[in-house]
Amino acid sequence: MTRDEIIGALKANLNKPVLVQFTDGVIGRIMPLTVDQEGFIHDLATQDDAVFWVPFEEVVSVTPEKPGA
Predict the structure, then answer these.
(1) Residue 40 maps to a domain
(2) φ and ψ at 54, to 5 degrees?
């Protein structure tokens, strides 16, 4: 995905679970909370209270979760 496609997918799915593939090969189920000019803040879509900021350069793809998944 391009940077603009990643940004668009994250903005379209704020506060909704998505699957993100990172440049290190890890795929994670996250919930994007905010998107800024350089990256985004997310939690892990779990009961954990931790939040993380990730630069767009560390993301390969964003896939919205299908309802009921």
Answers:
(1) yes
(2) -130, 130
For 9-60, how does the pLDDT look when each residue is reduced to its tens digit (9 = 90+)? 999 999 999 999 999 999 999 999 999 999 999 998 666 678 899 999 999 9
Cα 21 from Cα 63, distance rounded (Å): 9
Q: Which domain holds residue 22?
A: 3-64
DSSP secondary structure letters along 17-37 = -EEEEETTS-EEEEEEEEE-S
User: Which CATH number is 27's domain given?
Assistant: 2.30.30.100
Q: Are strands 51-55 and 18-22 parallel, antiparallel or unpaired?
A: unpaired
